[in-house]
Write a structure and sequence with these properties.
This protein is of the alpha/beta class. It is 47% helix and 10% strand.
C-alpha cells in the first residue's frame, strides 16, 4: 500500500482527472513504485515523453507535507485508490481521482446503492419541491443520495435526504477550507454527521471554470444511477448525464411537466433515448432493485457505523510532527546565522550541531540516524537512483523513499531526473 504522499505527488504532478496517471499506476503498480523506477523506466514504458518525465521530476513526495498538514487541520481523511474506503465504483472509470479528501463518514462512499441527483442552480419552485420529495423517497429506500452541494436542485436533493434521516454525500468543486457558498456550510456540516463531504481538490483550492466539469465525473462515477431533475439543454447536468452514459450507468430524467419545470433539457434526454423517464423515485428504486437485488438493507447497516475521523492518516501524525519541528529548528538556525553575519565582517563558523554537511567532506550530520543515515552514507560517494539505493543499502523501496524525502526536506539531498545526490 503506497503512502499517501506518493499519491498526492502524482496528483500534484499530472493534475486532476488524469487518465495518464491511471495508466501509469496500472503499469507500475502504485505511485511509490513509479517514483522509485526513475526516468529511464518511465521512458521505457512508452507512456511518457521526455517532457512529461521532466514534469514528474519537478515535484517530490516530500512536498505532500503541507497538503497533509492542511488535512490534519481540517480533520480530513486522505483516501487513496488502494484504501478499502475508496469508492469502488470510481475505480471503474478511466480517470479516477488519485486522492479524495473526506470529511465525515468514509463508509458512505461504498454504500450498496448510490444515486446522483443533478439539476440547475436556478430551480423552479416546482422543481425544488419535487426534488426534495424524490430524494426523501430514495433515502427512505436506503439509497444514498449524491450531489454537488450547490444551490438549487443540489441543495434540495441533500436536504430531502436529510429530512428522511438518510445518508447523503456532497462532492465539492473546490478544496476544503475555501470560503465558497458559505450559506450552505450548515447543510454541509449536517451532511457530514451521517454521510460525507468529499473533494478531489487540495485543501484551500479555489473553484475554477474547469473544476466543476471535473467534479461532475465523480458524481456520475460514484453512483449506479444519475437522475436529472431540471436542466437546460446546455448545462453541467448534461455533462454529468453524458459521463454516466459513457460509464455505462443508468440515467434517468424527470419530465418537465411532472416536476413543474420550465426547462426542456430533461425532455430532450428522454426523447433522444439517453435517459429513462422517471416520474417518481419508485421508478428508480425498482430498476435499481432489478439490477442490484431487492434487499440491500444488511449492507446498508454498515454505512451507519462509521469509523472515527482521521483514522487513515493517524499513522502520519508523528511523521508530520517531526517534520514540523524540523522546520522550526531549521528556521531558527537560519535566522541566527543571518543575525551573526550582520554583526561580523567575516562569515561566522556555526556551532558544530548547527553546521550543515558538505557532500565532499563525506561526514554525515550528527542528527542523522537509522535508515536516513544509511541512505546518506550510500549517497556520499555519488548520485544514485532509488533502485540502486535499495540494492546497496538492503532497505525496502518504501524505507529508501521516506529517507530520501527526509533528506530533501532537510536540504541535504536533491532528486533530479530519477537520481538522488547530496547537496
Amino acid at each position: 500500500m503506497a503512502g499517501a504522499e506518493y499519491w498526492i505527488w502524482l496528483q500534484k504532478t499530472l493534475g486532476f482527472a488524469s487518465s495518464l496517471a491511471c495508466k501509469l499506476v496500472a503499469q507500475f503498480g502504485d505511485p511509490e513504485k513509479l517514483y522509485c523506477a526513475g526516468k529511464q523506466a518511465w521512458l521505457a514504458s512508452g507512456l511518457l515523453t521526455e517532457k512529461q518525465c521532466e514534469k514528474l521530476c519537478q515535484h517530490s513526495p516530500s512536498e505532500s507535507f503541507n497538503v497533509m498538514m492542511d488535512c490534519l487541520q481540517h480533520d480530513l481523511d486522505v483516501i487513496t485508490p488502494d484504501s478499502p474506503y475508496y469508492p469502488q465504483n470510481l475505480l471503474r472509470i478511466p480517470d479516477y481521482p488519485m486522492v479524495l479528501y473526506v470529511k465525515g463518514n468514509k463508509a458512505a462512499l461504498n454504500a450498496p446503492v448510490l444515486a446522483a441527483i443533478v439539476g440547475t442552480r436556478n430551480a423552479s419552485v416546482g422543481g425544488d419541491k419535487f426534488t426534495r420529495q424524490f430524494s426523501r423517497d430514495l433515502a427512505e429506500n436506503q439509497v444514498v443520495v449524491v450531489s454537488g452541494g450547490a444551490l438549487g436542485i443540489d441543495t434540495a436533493a441533500h436536504e430531502g435526504a436529510l429530512a428522511a434521516n438518510g445518508v447523503t454525500v456532497v462532492v465539492l468543486g473546490c478544496g476544503f477550507g475555501h470560503e465558497y457558498l458559505m450559506q450552505n456550510e450548515p447543510m454541509r456540516r449536517k451532511v457530514a454527521e451521517k454521510g460525507a463531504v468529499i473533494s478531489e481538490f487540495f485543501p484551500g483550492m479555489a473553484p475554477t471554470k474547469a473544476s466543476f466539469p471535473t467534479r461532475n465525473r465523480i458524481l456520475a462515477g460514484m453512483a449506479q444511477a444519475t437522475v436529472v431533475v431540471e436542466a437546460s439543454e446546455k448545462s453541467g447536468s448534461f455533462i454529468t448525464a453524458g459521463n454516466a452514459l459513457h460509464m455505462n450507468r443508468m440515467v434517468f430524467a424527470v419530465p418537465a411537466a411532472v416536476s413543474g419545470s420550465f426547462y426542456g433539457g430533461t425532455d430532450k434526454l428522454i426523447r433522444q433515448k439517453k435517459a429513462y423517464a422517471a416520474e417518481n423515485a419508485a421508478t428508480v428504486v425498482r430498476m435499481l432493485q432489478m439490477q442490484y437485488g431487492e434487499d440491500w438493507s444488511e449492507k446498508y447497516e454498515a454505512v451507519l457505523q462509521p469509523d472515527p475521523p482521521g483514522k487513515l492518516i493517524a499513522g502520519y501524525e508523528e511523521f508530520l510532527r517531526k517534520k514540523s519541528e524540523e522546520q522550526i529548528v531549521q528556521s531558527a538556525v537560519a535566522e541566527e546565522s543571518i543575525g551573526k553575519e550582520k554583526k561580523q565582517s567575516k562569515p561566522c563558523t556555526p556551532k558544530k550541531q548547527e553546521q550543515l554537511p558538505v557532500a565532499d567532506a563525506k561526514t554525515a550530520p550528527a542528527d542523522l540516524e537509522g535508515d536516513v543515515l544509511t541512505v546518506w552514507n550510500a549517497l556520499a560517494d555519488g548520485p544514485k537512483s532509488p533502485d540502486t539505493l535499495v540494492q546497496t543499502t538492503g532497505l525496502s523501496a518504501r524505507q529508501v523513499m521516506i529517507s530520501i524525502s527526509k533528506l530533501e526536506f532537510k536540504g541535504l539531498a536533491v532528486k533530479e531526473f530519477g537520481k538522488v545526490s547530496l547537496k
